[in-house]
Amino acid sequence: MDRSCVSSRRAFLAALAVAPLSFLTLPGNSRAVDGQPYSKPIPSTGEPLPVVGMGTWITFNVGDDPVAQDVRTDVLRAFFDAGGGMIDSSPMYGTAEAVVGSCLARLDRPEGLFSATKVWTSSTAEGVEQIATSERLWGLPRLDLLQVHNLLNWSGHLETLSAMKADGEVRYIGITTSHGRRHAELAQIMETQPIDFVQLTYNIADREAETRLLPLAAERGIAVIANRPFQGGPLVDRVKRHPLPGWAREIDCTAWSQVLLKFIVSHPAVTCAIPATSRVDHMEENMAAARGAMPDAALRRRMAADVAAL
Amino acid sequence: MDLLSYSLVDLIPFSRETYFRLFERYNIGVWPAPIIGLAMGLTALFTARRADGWVLRAPFLLTAACWVWVGWVFQIHWYAPLSWPGIYFGIGFLLQGLMMAVVLGRRPLAGSPEGVARDPGPGLWILVFALALQPLLGLLSGRPWYGLEVFGSAPDPTVVATLGFLLLVRHPLRWFLSIIPLAWCLISGATLWVLGVPTWSVMPLAAALYLGVVAWPRVSGRRQLKDS
């Protein structure tokens, strides 16, 4: 590990230690003056990543339906126009990888793409073939991030991914879980394995990760991708029946989705959130959450309490 | 595969819109298969009753062919790319088609009173529902006519019609032939429930009705014995 990474990690941990802090005082967090979204550094390299990415579960699994693919291309265009970068997918998501690849080709492979997918099979040998298939479907010679999906055969796949990283065939490696599954085992992997990223479920209603996993990620210098920011839809459907609280204006939110996303990405240990949508207007709304004021620790506590009381 | 760590929602990685669009694209893609399938179903229904009794071998063979088509074409080639369990569903449908062809196609059901249900009414009503009414339920969900699911090419009406045909026979292997159709009723009902389709309960209700009709003579027979 180079010295700059160690220094960046130390500064990050030091910042965590003096929390509560406002979002922008965290080292490496940036808001560019030209209207780009906030970004946070990937702890292992310092490379900035926009705090709002894009998931593809359900939304991009539309097969070779040309009508639906047109709409998804528009969604991706809106994502990149708003400064988006990370797209996360998986072989488990049906045709999502193929659709993402097709839409990226139509957009002439936009700059700023950070491609993240997973390996999802119980066979280590099959995992190698699956990764090659993913690269073909995305239309990329090399993916940025490869993750072991839902801890499935994680030891076998991590060996493969580590070797690929050493050979420069992938830039980052990681492991994922969702719905709060197997957190104890995940923590063990985070403590013992040299991974760059961990992906887990974290949102204003599902905060189990705050007690162990997020502090551990900060301590170990592991980037955190928060999945299911809206609990797959029901969370935002539930809260949007209520008017936005007064404090939403303080953090420049005009929609509940932005409140929910800002809560997630303002946690010091979270690198980015990956909401999924099949609508351009929702994508624009989500990406607006990567701009404007962010809640500090005190407001985050109030946000969680107010949403729990709804 | 660590299946136990997955919930029902994890196994349905598409939206209601995508599911409905699947049938629209499928019906157009395999055209005129939906019309041929429906014609086969109506033929099976109308040829089942002959002047000299029930002739069920041909209807069963037609229905078995439809299971093979739905398994191979719909489940494996159209549905499975969207959802990985589709491969297993396809294998199940192929297996059911082969079992029906072998078990019921070989047995002489034509005009044999011992092989035909005493009261064909419930089976016929279920058949009429599957062939004529069930496809129209899609309209209640706002689907276009060319996206409707019909007997012979789509799984749900094919399965319900099969339950209707099974109610027309008395066969020692009827329970055996009911397992996959009943399982599909639960799978389809669960899928539609997760997708929020208002008519999700139709398939589980069809299964419950089938089980009720099959069980009723035994229940009423025991009661009569007790009363006497």
Automatic annotation (TrEMBL), chain A:
<feature type="domain" description="NADP-dependent oxidoreductase">
    <location>
        <begin position="52"/>
        <end position="290"/>
    </location>
</feature>
<feature type="signal peptide">
    <location>
        <begin position="1"/>
        <end position="32"/>
    </location>
</feature>
<dbReference type="Pfam" id="PF00248">
    <property type="entry name" value="Aldo_ket_red"/>
</dbReference>
<keyword id="KW-0732">Signal</keyword>
<protein>
    <submittedName>
        <fullName>Diketogulonate reductase-like aldo/keto reductase</fullName>
    </submittedName>
</protein>
<dbReference type="InterPro" id="IPR036812">
    <property type="entry name" value="NAD(P)_OxRdtase_dom_sf"/>
</dbReference>
<dbReference type="InterPro" id="IPR053135">
    <property type="entry name" value="AKR2_Oxidoreductase"/>
</dbReference>
<dbReference type="InterPro" id="IPR023210">
    <property type="entry name" value="NADP_OxRdtase_dom"/>
</dbReference>
UniProtKB/TrEMBL annotation, chain B:
<feature type="transmembrane region" description="Helical">
    <location>
        <begin position="28"/>
        <end position="48"/>
    </location>
</feature>
<feature type="transmembrane region" description="Helical">
    <location>
        <begin position="60"/>
        <end position="80"/>
    </location>
</feature>
<dbReference type="InterPro" id="IPR045708">
    <property type="entry name" value="DUF6064"/>
</dbReference>
<keyword id="KW-0472">Membrane</keyword>
<feature type="transmembrane region" description="Helical">
    <location>
        <begin position="175"/>
        <end position="195"/>
    </location>
</feature>
<dbReference type="Pfam" id="PF19540">
    <property type="entry name" value="DUF6064"/>
</dbReference>
<feature type="transmembrane region" description="Helical">
    <location>
        <begin position="124"/>
        <end position="142"/>
    </location>
</feature>
<feature type="transmembrane region" description="Helical">
    <location>
        <begin position="148"/>
        <end position="168"/>
    </location>
</feature>
<protein>
    <recommendedName>
        <fullName>MFS transporter permease</fullName>
    </recommendedName>
</protein>
<feature type="transmembrane region" description="Helical">
    <location>
        <begin position="86"/>
        <end position="104"/>
    </location>
</feature>
<keyword id="KW-1133">Transmembrane helix</keyword>
<feature type="transmembrane region" description="Helical">
    <location>
        <begin position="201"/>
        <end position="219"/>
    </location>
</feature>
<keyword id="KW-0812">Transmembrane</keyword>
